[in-house]
Amino acid sequence: MISIYALVDPRDDTVHYIGLSKNPAKRYAQHLTPRQRNQAKREWIQELLASQLLPKLLILEEGLSAETAFQREAYWTIHYARAKHPLTNLEKTRTGYPAPPQQPKRYIRVGKYWQEATN
Length: 119
Fold this sequence. Notes:
alpha+beta, 3-stranded antiparallel beta sheet, single chain, two-stranded antiparallel sheet, 26% strand
């Protein structure tokens, strides 16, 4: 079963990353390594570590199937983007998250990207 989680800044409780994992604790530890490809997330975490702080791990949902987990990850990403949290899920989010859709749409994950489902 899969969990949806958020990485939260302990200084102001803003959400900086939404992810999914079968083992959130293990995935959290991986986020703390400097080998992250996501530069914005890596810089944010390094900034916290330099201040002797760690991001908070917030479990948003758990016990999900793979299909449901991908949909819920998209939901939470859009939810926090609309609430103007500084998400680092995409490199461009440091300067602004792409506007979420106005009408609810169904998305599917293709590789590491999301695309609108056609049916």
